[in-house]
Each structure stands twice: as structure tokens, then as C-alpha cells.
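Justification of computing resources. Each target in the renewal requires a structure prediction run like the one illustrated here; the chain below, 323 residues long, is used simply to show the kind of job we budget for.
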Amino acid sequence: MPPVHRWRDIALFAGLFGLVIAGLFGIAAATGWEETWTHIKNLAVWQVAVLLLLSLVNYVMRGLRWHILVRRLGLDLNFSQNLRHFLGGFAMSVTPGRLGEFVRMRWIRRETGVPAEKTAPLMLMDRASDLAVMALLLAIGLLAAASGPRGAIPVVIVALMVAFVVTRPTLLRFAVNSLYKTIGRKPRFFVRVRRASDSLAQFSHGPTMFMALILGGIGWFAEGASFYYLMSWLGSDISLATCVVIFVFSTLAGGLTGAPGGVGGAEAAMIALLSLEGIPLSMSIPATAVIRLTTLWFAIAIGFVIFPIAEKYSKRGAYALEV
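Resulting C-alpha cells:
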């Protein structure tokens, strides 16, 4: 990554982080500092370590899923390389539209010579798998929980529909063609998208899709469980199923806002849903701040550590000079 772009992304990262913290601090100041601070300082170091460990479970499970998808595409990359690409891409989670995550495609091209057009389906399948898994967790959580946000039901349906379409080459090609006929611009872009959609046929493999769902399910459930433990340690008696629903729904809601990393939207949704469950702001604010720090921002921090390593190794690839 050119130095200018890297500093721009770091500035964006710092700016978004600062805005979120400032917003949470503002709400805390308006509702009283004492109880909020009491909840935060009562968390032990080992408890924070458990939260981070559960987040790592999520990243490793999804990294293993990424490895399976890469191998299914026929690319000769080992697990170490694929995990490095996957984790390094987290550094780009806060870029507009998460387009920066396509840096993974650049690393793969440098090391294998395979163009981005052929590897782009990896990103599509990765996102589709997350959508499907999160929708299923929401559905199961809503059935198991005594209460839950009614607005989650349409989200479940939409997420499952989108996940189904983007993993079916024929349907996706039809959707792309329809969109092109409506817009009528950028034909080269739509040609590339159509070619990428055709590549999805390689993922229409029962065992591959099953493993993608299982690994993604374990990963996202681990973060939902992390939120449950956090709420319990803060003194709440909210159930595991409800915590999973709130965490997953907030994550999806944040993504729907279009903000980088869902920043702002996810936090607002989480605080609102916790309030509906009778959780006071003095508890929901620190809970939201801590869980976002130990999930999204922890992932981004890992990405910033791995990114230069992935960049260094990719430049040693046999096809690095061609990119």
C-alpha cells in the first residue's frame, strides 16, 4: 500500500474510533458517570482476556473457512498464507464500503498470478456465508429467546434471500443483467461481475458449503457468547439467546447503514435493543463500548499488525512485479 493511502486509512481509523468514543462518552456524561465507570472498572483483566480469546475463535474459524474456499477455487496456497491474507484484510474493515478488503485479491495475485476477476468470488462467498450464518443465528435465537426485536424477522428473511442469490451463479447473473439494463452504464464493470458470478459455480459443492456454514456459525456464536459473558459480568441476567440476537442484529444493522465497519449504527442499535430489554444506560453504554472494542476494533488492530507482514511476503511472490 502506498504511504499516502496507508496514512489516509490510519487517519480514517482514528477518526471513526474517536467519533464513536466521543459519542459514548457524551451519552455517559448525560446519564451520569459514576455507575458507568463502576461497571467498567469492575471488569477483571482475565475477563477481558476471555472476551478477546472468544473473538480470536471467530477470526480463526472464519480464516479456516477462507482457506477452504481458496482451496476449492484451486489456488495453491497453504493455510499460513491464507490466514495471513484473511487477517491482514481486517485492517481495511473501516474503509468506505469495505472496498479496501480487496487487498486480499492483490496479495493472491502477487503470489499465484491469478487475476482478481477469478478470485473476486472469494469475497462474495465469504460475505454470503456470513450473511447466511448470521441470519440462521438470528432465527434460532429468536425462537429460543423469550423476547427479541421483532424487526429482526425481516432482517433474517432479507439476509437469507441475499445469501441465497449471491451463491447461485444463475440467479446472480440474472440480477447483474437486470441491474445493467436498468443503469445502462459501465459495461466493462458488469462484464467483470458476470465473469465473477460464473466462477461461483465452483463453490456449489455440498461439503464446502456445509463446512462454510459450520465454521462461520462457530465463529459468530463465539462472539455472541462473548457478549453474554460480558453482560453477566456486568450484573445483567439477560439470556444467552437474547444476547446472541442483540449482538448479531446490531452487527447486521450497522452494516446496513453503509458506514465503514458499521461504526455508529451498530453501537446505536445495541444500546437501543439493550434498553428494550430493561438494561439501564449506565450498563448498556459500557457493555457496548467493551464488546465493540474486543470484536471490531480488536480485529482491525490485528489487521494493522498483520498487514505489513502480508504486504512484505506478497512482494516476494513470483508475480509481484506484474501487479
